[in-house]
Amino acid sequence: MQYWWFSVLVAAIAVGLVALVVWLHRHLRASYIVAMCVGTVLILYKTCEFSYYRAIGHPEYPVEFSHISYFIIGATMLTGVKKMRFFAAFCGSAGGIGYLIATILSPDSMVTEMSSTYYVVMAVIQHELLFFVGLLLMFDVQRHSYRDIWVPIVGTVAIVGFSLLVYYHYIYPDFIDVEKIVIIKIIKGTIIGYVIGEENLTPAIQVVTSIGVAVLVVAVMMLFLWLNNKMFDKAERLAAERGTTLPTNDDLGIIPWVKKAVAKRKAKKSGGSQ
Question: pTM for this structure?
Answer without folding.
Answer: 0.89
